[in-house]
């Protein structure tokens, strides 16, 4: 007795075979694209580590230009991050909890430095606070000069890094259940007490991750800094500017500074992931 498949069974068999084949093809294609993308990202970074020996790396760290850039970068990035947190936290809290006329405009202006080209940001700061700027010309009458000073470095970093903290802080505040705040108010807590004792502690993980991102952005700032603060060793030459300068004559120093920034960037991403994971 010969068993034959019905047309429906034959269609399902053939269709199932094609489905398995297409799944295999898509899996291989996805794996190939993922491998190419990872290779494109990791190969340039790995090349930095392959082009310099550990001895050359340690030797470059003792050079004055490297030491000056390291110390200046960490100091200015830390100061700018503190400023961003102090002034950005109230702004983010108000925008997250209050509905007022012009809030969308404030949010747009807050996010503007993210999409603004760094060179444009630096030129704008120079036109505002430079010696002949809109504000700087009046400060110059009192002997106060901001452009091409360490203060200019901090201002440039604050300008470009603040949106990274404010956006994260606002999202963190919006994620806090307002029931906790309402309960505190019914018990007689003032708005300041509610913010300090309820809202900010509950949003702490998001605020920390935002501050870390802001610090990393400030540490890697280049365009606005060189336009507004210049490139003077020990005064305005941060690590990105030192890389640009030293690669023309001392490649080992440029690679060493680049490796440091790569390690910091990796550490920042890991720290943000850890903080965010703890939030949940």
TrEMBL record:
Domain ABC transmembrane type-1, chain residue ranges per copy: 70-270
Topology in the lipid bilayer: Multi-pass membrane protein
PROSITE patterns: ABC_TM1
One CC-aspect GO term: plasma membrane
Compartments (UniProt record): Cell membrane; Membrane
Gene3D superfamilies noted in UniProt: MetI-like
InterPro entries (UniProt xref): MetI-like (IPR000515), MetI-like_sf (IPR035906), ModB_ABC (IPR011867), NifC_ABC_porter (IPR006469), Sulph_transpt2 (IPR005667)
Pfam families membership: BPD_transp_1 (PF00528)
Keyword Ion transport carried by entry: no
Coiled-coil region: none
Spans traversing the lipid bilayer: 20-50, 70-96, 108-130, 142-166, 207-233, 253-275
Main localization category: membrane
Keyword list, A-Z: Membrane, Molybdenum, Sulfate transport, Transmembrane, Transmembrane helix, Transport
GO molecular function annotations of the record: ABC-type sulfate transporter activity; molybdate ion transmembrane transporter activity
Family designation: Belongs to the binding-protein-dependent transport system permease family.
Protein name in the entry: Molybdate ABC transporter permease subunit
Encoding gene per record: modB
């Amino acid at each position: 007795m010969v068993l034959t498949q019905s047309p429906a069974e034959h269609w399902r068999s053939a269709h199932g075979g094609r489905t398995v084949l297409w799944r295999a093809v898509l899996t291989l294609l996805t794996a190939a694209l993922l491998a190419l993308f990872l290779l494109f990202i990791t190969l340039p970074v790995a090349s930095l580590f392959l082009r310099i020996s550990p001895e050359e790396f340690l030797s470059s760290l003792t050079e004055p230009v490297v030491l000056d850039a390291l110390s200046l970068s960490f100091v200015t990035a830390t100061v700018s991050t503190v400023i961003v947190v102090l002034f950005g936290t109230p702004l983010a809290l108000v925008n997250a909890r209050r509905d007022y006329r012009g809030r969308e405009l404030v949010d747009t202006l807050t996010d503007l430095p993210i999409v603004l080209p760094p060179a444009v940001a630096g030129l704008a700061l120079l036109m505002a606070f430079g010696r002949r700027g809109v504000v700087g010309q009046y400060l110059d009458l009192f002997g106060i000069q901001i452009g091409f000073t360490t203060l200019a470095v901090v201002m440039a970093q604050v300008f470009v890094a603040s949106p990274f903290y404010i956006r994260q802080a606002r999202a963190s505040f919006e994620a806090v259940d307002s029931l906790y705040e309402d309960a505190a108010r019914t018990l007689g807590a003032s708005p300041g007490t509610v913010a300090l004792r309820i809202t900010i502690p509950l949003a702490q993980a998001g605020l920390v991750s935002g501050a870390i991102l802001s610090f990393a952005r400030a540490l890697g700032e280049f365009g606005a800094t060189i336009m507004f603060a210049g490139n003077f060793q020990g005064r305005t030459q941060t690590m990105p500017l030192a890389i640009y300068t030293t690669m023309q004559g001392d490649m080992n120093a440029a690679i060493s500074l680049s490796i440091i920034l790569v390690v910091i960037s990796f550490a920042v991403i890991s720290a943000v992931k850890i903080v965010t994971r703890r939030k949940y």
